[in-house]
């Protein structure tokens, strides 16, 4: 595989800022444009052999960026990862094994001298009822989707923090683009444990964002809809296109179900209308009719890597937007329906005690309970000497007291 002779020469090729798509990120993100030309970035892409990972690698290369494309150990071989492009470094990794993640980071730094954008497209899911998935299924999904993401972050973050000390004013010090899923915002029958891992990833990244923003490091969760498998990329490189049946000498064929294992259902769930079979039926029905373009999505993700003000979440495709929006609307509606249980109505002028709601929504008489009696009980139990700190839980359980020093 051809590669640049040094980090400096590798970063020197002129950058192609010509847009390849009519889709653009909102101007509020300050995306690359003729007025704001992109500079050459070094991408490290985990899961580069899947449909979105492959398309993203090609998009970055077409814009003149440098890429380290990481395949999956035991699924790909080093020979399959070679010859993709003269500005592409082919590597292998198992994100569940920290040593392999560290070796990929070291190899990328040795080749290019820096890393600007780290992308995690890896994932694994089992399609089947929650009851049917055994410990091995659960562990594989959790270790790949959540712990794999955490391994990448924990091993790369020290480097990004160190480089943040040399960044210019207003310049981002590094960026994480973590591919989540609409399953990170929805509950999908037949994908229970998979959804749980994606929920965990969403919580991890959203929490971490507050911790790393002070260093100028950004992070975005990318939530795509169903990606097409049969899309021609049309980019000129030396690697075989896995979506082309006539160009499969290296054995890299995109799998029909992507990174999902379809598990045979047990008898209670083995019916044509079982809710647990929903995910499998959707995948089978979509076949080659997936509504989201991986090529167009990759172009937007490339812009996401170069924009100045990236969002926390980027949803790709109308399915993702509509399904997540409907989910959030239902959550808000449910909160509104039940909020009266948690927030007492304001007292009427001059009145005492809380009020209750009638069937018609009107405020009725005072709620049960003698306010004076309750107050006397509080006084009896709530008097403490100065310096003491005690709290009573609502169930009348044990007191919680602050321990004295020593």
UniProtKB/TrEMBL annotation:
Keywords of this entry: Oxidoreductase
Biased composition, class Low complexity, residue ranges: 1-14
Protein's UniProt keywords contain Cytoplasm: no
Matching InterPro entries: NAD(P)-bd_dom_sf, SDR_fam, SDR_oxidoreductase
Biased composition (Basic and acidic residues): 357-367, 389-400
Pfam families (UniProt xref): adh_short
Compositional bias ranges of the Acidic residues kind: 368-388
CDD domains: 17beta-HSD-like_SDR_c
Ranges for region Disordered: 1-36, 344-406
GO MF: oxidoreductase activity
Residue ranges, compositional bias (Polar residues): 15-36
Superkingdom to which the source organism belongs: Eukaryota
Family, as annotated: Belongs to the short-chain dehydrogenases/reductases (SDR) family.
Protein known as: NAD(P)-binding protein
Phylogenetic placement of the source organism: Eukaryota, Fungi, Dikarya, Ascomycota, Pezizomycotina
């Amino acid at each position: 595989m051809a590669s640049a002779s040094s980090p400096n020469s590798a970063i020197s090729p002129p950058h192609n800022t010509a847009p390849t798509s009519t889709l653009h990120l909102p101007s509020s993100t300050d995306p690359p444009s003729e007025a704001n030309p992109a500079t050459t970035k070094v991408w490290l892409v985990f899961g580069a052999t899947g449909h979105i990972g492959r398309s993203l690698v090609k998009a970055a290369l077409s814009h003149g960026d440098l890429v380290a494309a990481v395949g999956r150990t035991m699924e790909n071989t080093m020979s399959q990862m070679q010859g993709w492009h003269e500005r592409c470094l082919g590597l292998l990794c198992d994100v569940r094994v920290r040593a392999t993640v560290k070796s990929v980071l070291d190899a990328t730094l040795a080749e290019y001298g820096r890393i600007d954008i780290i992308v995690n497209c890896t994932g694994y899911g089992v399609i089947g009822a929650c009851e049917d998935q055994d410990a091995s299924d659960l562990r594989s999904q959790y270790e790949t989707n959540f712990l794999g993401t955490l391994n990448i972050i924990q091993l790369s973050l020290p480097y990004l923090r160190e480089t943040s000390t040399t960044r210019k004013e207003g310049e981002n010090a590094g960026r994480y683009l973590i591919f989540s899923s609409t399953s990170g915002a929805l509950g999908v029958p037949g994908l229970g444990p998979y959804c749980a891992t994606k929920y965990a990833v969403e919580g991890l990244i959203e929490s971490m964002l507050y911790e790393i923003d002070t260093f100028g490091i950004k992070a975005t969760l990318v939530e795509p809809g169903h990606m097409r498998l049969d899309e021609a990329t049309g980019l000129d490189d030396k690697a075989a296109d896995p979506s082309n049946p006539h160009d499969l000498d290296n054995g890299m064929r995109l799998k029909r179900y992507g990174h999902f294992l379809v598990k045979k259902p047990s008898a209670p769930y083995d019916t044509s209308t079982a809710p647990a079979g929903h995910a499998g039926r959707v995948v089978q029905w979509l076949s080659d009719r997936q509504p989201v373009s991986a090529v167009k999505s990759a172009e937007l993700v490339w812009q996401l890597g170069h924009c100045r003000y990236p969002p926390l979440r980027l949803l790709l495709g109308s399915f993702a937007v509509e399904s997540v929006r409907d989910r959030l609307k239902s959550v808000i509606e449910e909160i509104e329906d039940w909020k009266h249980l948690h927030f007492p109505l304001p007292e009427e002028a001059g009145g005492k005690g809380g009020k209750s709601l009638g069937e018609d929504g009107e405020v009725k008489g005072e709620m049960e309970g003698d306010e004076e009696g309750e107050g006397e009980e509080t006084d009896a139990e709530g008097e403490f000497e100065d310096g003491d700190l005690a709290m009573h839980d609502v169930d009348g359980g044990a007191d919680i007291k602050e321990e004295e020093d020593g």
